[in-house]
Description:
Blueprint: E1 4-13, H1 17-28, E2 33-36, E3 50-51, E4 61-62, H2 63-76, E5 80-82, E6 86-90, E7 96-100, E8 104-113, E9 117-119, H3 125-129, E10 135-136, H4 139-142, E11 150-154, H5 158-168, E12 173-177, H6 187-195, E13 199-202, E14 205-213, E15 216-224, E16 229-233, E17 236-239, E18 243-245, E19 276-278, H7 290-310
Parallel strand pairs: 1-2, 1-8, 2-5, 8-19, 10-17, 11-12, 11-17, 12-13
Antiparallel strand pairs: 3-4, 6-7, 7-8, 9-18, 14-15, 15-16
Helix pairs in contact: 1-2, 1-7, 5-6
The structure holds NADPH dihydro-nicotinamide-adenine-dinucleotide phosphate.
The site of NADPH dihydro-nicotinamide-adenine-dinucleotide phosphate has 17 residues, from helix 5.
Amino acid sequence: MTTTSEKVKCLIVGGGPAGYTAAIYTSRANLQTVLYEGLQPGGQLTTTTDVENFPGYPKGVSGTEMMMEIREQAGRFGADIRFGSVTKANLDKRPFVITIDDKHTIEAETLIIATGATAKYLGLPSEEKYRGQGVSACATCDGFFYKGQDVAIVGGGDTACEEAIYLSNICRKVYMIVRRNVLRASQAMQNRVLKAQNIEILWEHQTKEILGSTNGVTGALLTNKAGEEKTIDIQGFFLAIGHTPNSGLFTPAVKTDELGYICTKPGTAYTNVPGVFAAGDVQDSQYRQAITAAASGCIAAKDAEFFLNEQ
Ligand code: NDP
């Protein structure tokens, strides 16, 4: 296999609000910037519906549209935005050697990790079996396929509520499978779910198995707190039970907490490796908002700039 190589001042990995915002700042600061977007340009926001809480959009904006605008803004200042994924990262010494798609290496003086987080699954074999055939972790991506049908969504957080509401506008009936007797979601989200006529919350229920045929999902076998079993007839099974940070490629060189979130020096984007910075959901288990991701992207860019100036 032929490999190619190049040198850059700042390499940003991740095409979400953190990565693109970092690219706006680093390219405006004239740090020759290359950004790799990974498999999902725009990041998780492209799987959401309207973003109503990002300042500057009084009427709301679609997640995809907002991300494409931030991307365009970064490109306007010269950031070289590319499609590709990191397959290896050697962070032993600077310049760091980062391999893209196993065939291109980049020697980077600074690295900003903004790889975000990935949806979690329950870990059932039947979930794996029917993934893409009725099982999905993105209602806004796949909900349309279940128009007029019955579906279930697992989780009780803001994502589950938001996606249940989204599905309720497309599907005939939406079961929300909630493991406790309360929702974790914000009160405003809870109210919207409770108001929807076609959402039924199955409190204190867990999924034992997803049922299906050669055509995909046909139902789910649930158990309640008392151990009683119940079957629901559904064609779509959605997961909204949280996320795992995409930090694995950079560990153990870069330190993470026990959940895999990259540890940064409080109030900064500095990791334990000088010259490596982290921004967005890969280092934030708490806020995980577009606006906080964007802000941390700005911090990472400023820190990278200060770092290079000090060298
Ligand atoms: P959360 O971690 O907030 O919620 C996860 C939900 O899934 C919880 O109800 C949890 O139950 C449940 N859960 C976790 N594991 C399992 C399991 N194995 N089986 C069954 N249920 C399980 O994740 P979200 O993705 O909902 O939200 C992440 C962050 O993003 C939050 O800070 C949220 O506020 C924010 N957000 C904001 C939005 C907005 O403002 N528009 C929209 C979406 C997200 P339990 O409660 O029992 O732990």
